[in-house]
Design a protein that fits this description.
Helices cover about 40% and strands about 10% of the residues. By secondary structure, it is of the alpha/beta class. Helix 5 links the parallel strand 2 and strand 3 (about 105). The longest helix has 20 residues, at about 1-20. The chain is globular, with a radius of gyration of 23 Å.
């Protein structure tokens, strides 16, 4: 009897929690409170000229944040006097710490596991709003993420208290319609743009929606003098001379299916060494240290192994000194593109696959600059519209020979464009 009552109690608590934590429940118990606190306005007309304080929420991964840099610059261009606060996850704070287009950067850790994960995320979002956001009295809050919000970002947008809340509608694609049902009620201005575009364009479209003008869609990063000095010392300590041809490799990725086999990276490295007498810089995060060691063992002393030994900005400073970058669909690829290095991307997404996939280069490929994207021509069974494997799978369709040809073309173009390797330009 007691066990049955306990079971009923747990089910009732879970049911109550789902109702309270739902978008509709959140609005029901919070909206009156916000109005009493004076955080809402009666009008729904969004006038950019009246905006004095702006909140930007970008809780995504490294590459997504890099692709947001044009948005931050163009927003500042349109709102030169506004106070702009940017919220990111703690792991990418280093990347935006010196962004000149925002007045402050806050962090929000959305990661939570277990039975009450959503409740903990809700609590963290409310705590961040109470401690830091409500006192700012934001006029406008923007969530520029076009795809599914897995990060509780829309709730944080709502909890900010901003009377104008702009984000992409739950209806823009089927995956978001399924996973973010009801999220539109947390927004005052849902953007209903279902057109297939690169993510940089989706980000900038949020500014166009507000009536702003876009002058420049170029990526950029903000490195310190210390980051530049670190890169010089690191390479010098590993015997890299100013005239050496340095090629960056990044064998890791956020998902195993996006990782080209490590032995193929080794074969490619041997060829680059022999054909171009190049030095190889291997970069990656702390979780990819074994991959760096594998390449270091396979390729010998010519490898400069920086995997797990640098911050994001230091990684970008190192990549800035490369003549070429070769890597998977991952953060380092976007870092390389942002500092102007020619890129060869190895994508797991088949050319015959769906352009709407989160792995599609049409949406997340290198932005700007010289680049080549290599993809398998068709998926490997049982994959159909995209690679759905839990390990390296469809990406096996990219051969070492294809990558060698792409590298040769990019290095030839780089040599014709810039001539012999020269010191990198000064940081802006």
């Amino acid at each position: 009897m007691i066990k049955a009552l306990n079971g009923m109690s747990r089910r009732w608590m879970r049911s109550l929690s789902r109702r309270v934590l739902s978008p509709e429940g959140t609005v029901l118990y919070c909206e009156t409170l916000f109005r009493l606190m004076g955080y809402r306005q009666s009008t729904v007309m969004l006038d950019l000229s009246q905006v004095r304080r702006v909140l930007i929420i970008r809780l995504d991964e490294i590459g997504d944040v890099v692709l947001t840099t044009p948005f931050l610059r163009e927003l500042r261009r349109n709102l030169p006097e506004a106070w702009i606060t940017l919220v990111v996850k703690p792991q990418v704070y280093n990347l935006v710490e010196f962004c000149p287009y925002v007045d402050e950067v806050l962090t929000y850790d959305w990661r939570a596991k277990g039975r009450w994960a959503d409740l903990r995320r809700h609590g963290r979002a409310l705590r961040l709003a109470w401690r830091h956001l409500w006192q700012r009295r934001f006029d406008l809050a923007i969530l520029p993420r076009w795809d599914t919000d897995y990060y509780h970002g829309t709730f944080l947008l709502y909890f900010s208290g901003a009377p104008w809340r702009v984000g992409y509608s739950e209806t823009v694609n089927e995956r978001k319609r399924r996973n973010n049902k009801g999220f539109d009620c947390l927004l005052t201005h849902p953007l209903n743009d279902s057109e297939l575009k690169h993510e940089v364009e989706h980000n900038l479209d949020a500014i166009r929606y507000l009536g702003g003008q876009i002058q420049d869609g170029q990526l950029e990063l903000w490195l310190s003098a210390e980051d530049e000095s670190f890169a010089e010392r690191f390479l010098t300590n590993h015997g890299v001379k100013p005239g050496d041809l340095l090629v960056g490799l990044a064998p890791g990725a956020g998902a195993p299916k996006r990782m080209w086999p490590i032995d193929r990276f080794a074969h490619l490295g041997f060829w680059v060494q022999e054909a171009y007498n190049a030095r190889l810089l291997v970069v990656g995060g702390p979780g990819e240290v074994p991959l760096g060691k594998d390449l270091e063992r396979a390729l010998g002393a010519s490898v400069v192994n920086a995997v797990g030994r640098t911050t994001l900005r230091q990684t970008a400073a190192l990549l800035k000194r490369c003549r070429l970058f070769v890597g998977n669909d991952a953060g380092p690829m976007h870092l390389a593109a942002a500092v102007g290095v020619p890129v060869v991307e190895l994508s797991c997404h088949p050319r015959s696959g769906s352009s709407w996939s989160v792995n599609s280069p049409l949406r997340f490929g290198p932005w700007g600059g010289s680049h080549t994207v290599l993809q398998p021509s068709t998926p490997r069974p049982p994959c159909l519209e995209e690679c759905v494997a839990k390990s390296s799978h469809c990406i096996w369709g990219i051969t070492v020979e294809q990558v060698e040809q792409a590298v040769a073309r990019q290095l030839q173009c780089a040599t014709e464009a810039v001539g012999p390797l020269s010191p990198p330009p000064p940081t802006r």
